[in-house]
Amino acid sequence: MYSSRLARLSSRRLWLVNHSARRFQSTEPPPAGGHSPSIATSSYLRTTRDAALHVPGLRWVDADNSRLEDVAAGRETRKMNVYQAVRDAMSVAMTKDDTAVVFGEDVAFGGVFRCTMGLAEEFGRERVFNTPLTEQGIAGFGVGLASMGHTAIAEIQFADYIFPAFDQIVNEAAKHRFRSGGEFGVGTLTIRCPTMSVGHGGLYHSQSPEGFFMGASGLKIVIPRSPLQAKGLLLGSIRDPNPVIFMEPKILYRSAVEQVPVDDYELPLGKAEHLTRGNDLTLLTWGTPIYHCETALHMLETPPESIAKHVPTSMRSAKVELIDLRTILPWDVDAIEESVRRTGRLVIVHEAGRTGGVGGEIAAEIQKRCFLKLNAPVKRVTGWDTPVPMQYEKFYIPDALRILDAVVETLAY
Amino acid sequence: MFRISRLPTFAVSHGHLPTSQSPITPKLQFFNSVMEDGKQIPTYRVLDGTGKVIEGAQLPDIDEDFARRIYQNMVKLPIIDTLLYNVQRQGKISFYMTAYGEEAAILGSAAALAADDEILGQYREMGALLWRGFSYDEVMAQCFGNCEDTGTKGKQMPVHFGSRKYHYHTISSPLATQIPQAAGVAYALKRDPSRRGRNCAAVYFGEGAASEGDFHAGMLLASTIPSPTLFIARNNGFAISTPASEQYHGDGIAARGPGYGVQTIRVDGNDVLAVLAAVREARKLCLEEGRGVLVEAMTYRVGHHSTSDDSFAYRPRQEVEDRKRVDNPIARFRLFLESQGWWNAEQEESYKAEVKKEVMQAFKRAENLPRLELQEMFTDVYGGDEPWNIKEQREELKALLKKYGNTWEPWKAELKKYRGEGKELLEA
């Protein structure tokens, strides 16, 4: 399919000339679990103390301001998964800020995903408490607390159930500062919620609703990809002077494990992060699909035999720039624009459905800024425009194969 | 078990379920009221229609100065309302909502609060702001959205007041959203050592707003996560055109309080002394127990819902006239004051004349003030660093203004209304 297009455009990339060559490198069956890295073995997770202490953009937040901010020497790290890192962030925030409280459904016993384990014992039930089962109430209560300058860390049990709070979030939290001419505001409000698919969540334990909030100017939306990111971004969100929706990819709660600095640190909101560098194509995503992208890039380089014929040899050495967007609103347009200007190709991956998704917004802005630099249409690899279906999930989510196909098609365009 | 056996109406004890204190009964019996025999919750009153203390009622503790201050603020409301209502009719402001008929409910409750209790209103509670010292100039600034409107910077519709100084949280149009917020505000007060046991969050809402899910959420939260939240329902009989009979089938809003485990009272909202006494006591309970308390003030919305509404399309003019005549909250309190020798016809005349004069002056002044700078449109969306999209869009408007600002008539005329006429944008 791509060969006819290549005939037209092959001059654009030298390495595409050899596109028709097919080489089957391996005759052995694939190992159990496939050829590719999994979340557990991802190279994007920092497995050593040294790596964890030298993260781009990391800012130490110490009680002692006389210390140099960038000094990593002597600092400790601990192996954590995402739920432990989230818990650690809340513990740090509450230790340093007496007004900080954590509340939501079932948070007092530790939370259905263990994110608040032990916090009630550590800080008392006045600061870590269950609410009645009412999402609009949880969000409204948080708006009230935050309007008094108190730090409110609210939990919505699943992002799928954030919609009853949509009015409080969009009409109230997002507009609070603007409508009061800056006299009031709810900058100390953070709403955490587990998001994205989990393998068997069906319609209401799988959704990625970030796109619905993208038009709610006044809000920030943050989605981390790993434990280290989760702690730094959550602390950044809790202390950001704006209401933040912090969406935690629930499949990563236990599966993503890395070394996380024990001290207080923040990662910047509104900044994307480059995970790989390259000049041939920009691959942009956030949350769980980061790891599908990693697998797809591995497959591009060394495709398993079963699909090798669809991956032209010439493309296998393509340098793809993988970017973790991290903040959905306001998103890092400069980083994406700069990257696409170099690569001329953009593939956006997200789990949410395509129509009205975040990918559409980014695609439109990038085509405006990079029109003359684009060598292929911006491609979106997304969930389909259906609810997330229980027994069909493997064919619904943008997995490594679909990402690989989009990368190949875009390179071949 | 011993608790159950003490209940007089259940002579034979059958015990109770493990998760409930509800006594087991062999009688198959439905119920539909929180009061015995299906009777309605009574309405607490102190003064009758002629301003006399009714039999068995006790006057709340008020002195002459305090009583006069309440009355004077009640009187201010219809004077401001009438002017701004007419001004809207002339197209000088875009919108207005009067509080006709609800003066006692608003001032009686506001006077029962501490000056630094946090107020979260719906939109018909400007009287509470006036009570706390909000000036006529400030009222006008917000309604005109002029350069003195620090509370909303000309960004919200008229009557959406707000003031940090007077602990009055900025009004927003979505109904009932302030109710669960009030529980959060109250929880913050309870956690603040300097305000714990001293301040409550008072939240006002109409009986229509009480149908929103947020009312349910707010009542639940303030009772379950004990927070000193004072719920003040203004039951004025109408939500725009919808009569209360189509809003609920139960015994008003008050009947819902006990369902949430919330101390509740219903009060004659046209009797300012009853409202004062009820809210004072409610506030005391609220602080003592650190939990939600509900007051339902029964009134009647004498005015139209807003300037965008003609209420005679859904209720007879005569009904409104009758209510105004027979049950006027201001007249009722005035009769009381006069009976105490605290007010007379002469004072009435001179005070009203003075208010009218001052309100008119404030109006004239506000009318001639420009709006804030046009660039304010883009401020206060975010705190901290301004995101790129806002920055770029401001630049986009600037480019358009440069291109069309001096030639396209609708913009040219409009620009003159802003302080600086948009120059701060054009020259930036």
TrEMBL record, chain A:
Residues 80-255 form the Transketolase-like pyrimidine-binding domain. Its cofactor is thiamine diphosphate. One of its GO terms (biological process) is branched-chain amino acid catabolic process. SUPFAM superfamilies: Thiamin diphosphate-binding fold (THDP-binding), TK C-terminal domain-like. It comes from the Eukaryota. GO terms for molecular function: branched-chain 2-oxo acid dehydrogenase activity. Keywords: Oxidoreductase. Its EC number is 1.2.4.4. It catalyses: N(6)-[(R)-lipoyl]-L-lysyl-[protein] + 3-methyl-2-oxobutanoate + H(+) = N(6)-[(R)-S(8)-2-methylpropanoyldihydrolipoyl]-L-lysyl-[protein] + CO2. InterPro entries: THDP-binding, Transketo_C/PFOR_II, Transketolase-like_Pyr-bd, Transketolase_C. It is an enzyme of class 1 (oxidoreductase). CDD domains: TPP_PYR_E1-PDHc-beta_like. This is 3-methyl-2-oxobutanoate dehydrogenase (2-methylpropanoyl-transferring).
Automatic annotation (TrEMBL), chain B:
Keywords: Oxidoreductase, Thiamine pyrophosphate. Pfam families: E1_dh. GO terms for biological process: branched-chain amino acid catabolic process. It is an enzyme of class 1 (oxidoreductase). Its cofactor is thiamine diphosphate. It comes from the Eukaryota. Its EC number is 1.2.4.4. Residues 72-373 form the Dehydrogenase E1 component domain. Belongs to the BCKDHA family. This is 2-oxoisovalerate dehydrogenase subunit alpha. It comes from Phanerochaete carnosa (strain HHB-10118-sp).
